Amino acid sequence: MARVIAFANQKGGVAKTTTTLNLGVALAEQGKRVMAVDLDPQGNLTMSQGWNPDEIERSMFDVLVHKLPITEIVRTSEIDVAVSSIDLAGAELALASMIGRERALEKALLPALGEYDYVLIDTPPSLGLLTINALVASSGVIVPVQCEYLSLRGLVQLENTLSMIRENLNPKVEIQGILPTMYDKRLLHSREAVEILRENFGDLVLNTKIRKTVRYAEAPVKGQSVLKYDPSGEAAGMYRDLAKEVLDGASARQHA
Ligand SMILES: Nc1ncnc2c1ncn2[C@@H]1O[C@H](COP(=O)(O)OP(=O)(O)OP(=O)(O)O)[C@@H](O)[C@H]1O
Ligand SMILES: [Mg+2]
User: Fold this and answer.
1) Sign of the CA dihedral 84, 137, 206, 228?
2) What ranges do the domains of the chain cover?
3) Which ligand 1 atom sits closest to the C-alpha of 124?
4) Could you give the C-alpha distances from 158 to 8, 15, 89, 113, 163, in angstroms and in order?
5) Which of 9, 90, 131, 246 lies at 20 to 30 Å from 18 by C-alpha?
6) Tens digit of pLDDT for each residue in 100-144?
7) What is the per-residue pLDDT across 220-242, written as a single tens digit (0 to 9) for each?
8) Which of 7, 9, 17, 120 to mutate to test the pocket of ligand 1 (most atoms within 8 A of CB)?
9) CATH code for the part of the protein at 3-255
10) Which protein residues are within 6 Å of ligand 1, measured from CB?
């Protein structure tokens, strides 16, 4: 059965999408079967694999709202991607009046869970119904955080949302790791931000830090992960390190 991990932070531009794709490709390099789910109406993950969300007819919108089987909208490039389209922007409204609105994604994923080792869900920068669907469907949450003081403050709000979800909808969901991103080791401010994270969240902060490099912005222009765009580069190496850390965590969980 697949382990389902959501990538969430209501703050925009912290590398949720970059992490979902590149971790997914790095796990696939390790022989894991991976599906990424683009649950963001911006469709950045979909674009990062070379598809234009404006030209996509059937997407996660149809899966969530019209109960179309998810396999019918999955496309394959470096990994399998359940694609987004601009329609998805209407999903929150369409779901709002449905019974079981928070569980639409959890239900949709059920038939796919046996086909994959990892299902990775990219969420939009809000704590709305789409993100709630992701958190209800997941057992782990990885929270990418930009290494900046002001970015750290939003984590409390995310934690509050998670405890409400644990109480009411999904008792098993937990933060699997906080991932420092856009880390610049030359900046004292970056190092201090990681220290503050560690003081507040201890072992939840992952050992892997994703450094700032323009490679992460360049790769999506080619419709590629950094692992394909620059396979031997440092940018790819950091997501391979993250994949190892996630896999080590998984075997630790199994033996616990
Ligand atoms: N480590 C990094 N160093 C430099 N730039 C990065 C890094 N990671 C991501 N970026 C770039 O920063 C921008 C935001 O990243 P990304 O789209 O992954 O964030 P996001 O959290 O998904 O944003 P949104 O909240 O809008 O969905 C992108 O242009 C991306 O290429
Ligand atoms: Mg994104």
Assistant:
1) negative
2) 3-255
3) 27
4) 8, 16, 21, 26, 9
5) 90
6) 999 999 999 999 999 999 999 999 999 999 999 999 999 999 999
7) 999 999 999 999 999 999 999 99
8) 17
9) 3.40.50.300
10) 12-18, 40, 42, 44, 125, 181-182, 210, 212-213, 216-217
